[in-house]
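Researcher: Here's the sequence for the chain we discussed earlier.
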Amino acid sequence: MALQTAAITGNIRDFTTGWHNAPINITRTTVNPIPGEETTLAPNFSATFYTDENGDVAFTLPFDDETPTNYELTLPKGGTYANTITGDTTIADWIQSAIQPTPPTGVFVPVQSQGTAIVRADGGIGGDPRGDNAVDLQRARSNDSTVASGGNAVVGGGNGNTASGLNSTVAGGNLNTASNVESTVAGGGGNTASNVESTVAGGGGNIASGVESTVGGGNGNIASGSKSTVGGGSVNTASGDSSIVAGGNNNTAIDDNSVIAGGIFNEASGNSSVVGGGFLNQASGDYSIVAGGRNMQLSATAARSFAVGYSTTAVSFTQPDAFITYGLRPFMSAPNTAVTDADMKDGSISFWIDEVSGLLVFRVKYSDGTLQTGEVPFSKSAIIETISVGRDWTPADNGKVFHFDATLTMNSPDGLPDGWQVALNNLTNTNTVTFTAATTMNGEGGLTTMTGVDFARATLYHEAANVQYLGGNLA
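Model: Thanks. This is the structure I predict for it:
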């Protein structure tokens, strides 16, 4: 039984587009097999064939020179395809009508080689040559240059994308470009990563043109400084080296190490300057900070200054080393105990509230370490307290007004603060109030009691060295 080689065409739709090489087994069967007759005409025959995107296939198979009847054709991709044919049916007709393939599972991307590069075989052919070991899986391009032309470059998909830098990547999207060494565009549309190790993660119309610069997303953002970052938003620019614009709209970080956290139309143009947010704020002095608000402008001379505030028109500040609040009602809390001298730095100031004496106390430490204290007294509404049982005075009684409605004795212990004083009022002429002291009680005219006078009034004052002074309507 002789075999012949015949060129045939047919349609096999379970193969993806591209070249295939797989074993094909052809077996002849009969209804009443003749004992000893060979049934396998071409065991383990390997055929090479090509399937185009329409599913048409062309390949060569060996057949005997007899009329091909009752053949069974076994193909790869999981399945045996059989059909009984008559002697007047050509092999091409038989393949065309008999094969009903089982659809493959998963997603298969047909690829083929172009030199050392890999391209799609179902429409990805064309365009400029790909780079060595490049992968270009997009099916459409805007012009011949929109390919993975860099060595080891990758275009994962999309349309009109270009990866021209060595080791560059465009994962997908539309009209994106990664044009320098190890540059990356992850997706989006119209994005460009044009410098070494620059990255655009997504969005539209973004540009990372600085060395190791990054644009996270958004629209129309530019990171042009070395190691600069624009996190997102729209139309933001980070042009200083290591500058950052986290987000917002139309913000510009111009000088090195400058930062804008967000807001609209803000500018950080001083070295290491910061704008926290807000609207139309500007930090032009080196190391200056505008925390937020509106129309706060620290000029180039306002180095190291801090500003926060609000104005409907631009307000410029030129003073360096200033702490500025504008158009606000400042509120600041203060402790009721002093900061220790050891905790204060040379050239610093601390303050606290002495609630007993009613003082705002300032402590200054000069640049040479010299310490100085200043006090600002302030008035507060007096606390009125009625006493019916005698007791010792306490530091907390300072500044109070006391009404006595019984006969009793009040004693001044040692240790009351200097300047401590109270106002006294005996409510009726039937009460006798006696005043004593642990050390010294100096009563006016030698008198130390309040009695026999309706609504008698007096003042008790403590001076240094535990000395008390009592004056008023005494008996």
